[in-house]
Design brief:
Order of helices and strands: HHHHH
Helix content: over 70%
Structural class: mainly alpha
Length: 91
């Protein structure tokens, strides 16, 4: 379990998708808010990656999606923390 989550946490494709999800959510937060688009994006990315890359992995889809949601939430928290620090340092 730990090795699956760790491999998902260092996946550059997953990190990039979550980063640009945050960028898009920040640009549209006036009309959409933040919580719903970010939550839906985390689940979408967690489902998308195992469905498109599951051919060579030795893990079933359902646990991969569950661990993906956990990994995406951790990555999202780190990116939002960095974004908050960046915004506060600019003022």
């Amino acid at each position: 379990m730990v090795d699956i989550v760790f491999s998902q946490l260092i996946d550059p494709f997953r990190i990039g998708l979550i980063f640009f999800l945050v960028v898009t959510a920040m640009r549209t937060r006036q009309t959409m808010g933040l919580a719903t688009p970010l939550a839906m994006g985390v689940v979408f990315v967690a489902i998308l990656i195992p469905l498109t890359t599951a051919a060579g992995s030795g893990i079933e889809r359902t646990p991969a999606i569950g661990f993906g949601i956990l990994s995406n939430a951790i990555i999202l928290g780190m990116i939002l923390g960095g974004w908050t620090i960046w915004e506060k340092s600019r003022r």
